[in-house]
User: What shape does this take?
Amino acid sequence: MVVTATDGGDKALHSKCRIRIDVLDVNDNAPVFTNPVEDDSTSYASILRQEVITRIQAVDYDEGANSKLKFEILAEDGIRQTGFVNGSLFILNSTNGDLRLNMSNHRLRNSLGRHSLLVQVRCYNVSGFEY
Ligand SMILES: [Ca+2]
Assistant: This one.
């Protein structure tokens, strides 16, 4: 872009300068879950297997670091998680969203049945992760 400044004299004088504008992405999009697509989506898992139960997925329409995602389990069966993995029945890979049974949990054998998870995904900004 070229900007021209002109004075109001009889013989108008002017000056020009070239301005380069770099438009950078801002972190203005929150991530959106794509799997599961519904709030009460159900996945079935055979206990005593370490296979991935499901991959939690989300998209973020920003670019670069503004679209970097982090997954975490906020609550398991209504109980808020503290990040102490050994107490959880499930392990969620924070980077790729892979959900597995926590095979090191001694309660796992007695935990057949339906469980509910509250999962959060956050995107990154320069000061840390945000919702
Ligand atoms: Ca974002």
About this structure: The chain has one domain: 25-130. The longest strand covers residues 117-125.
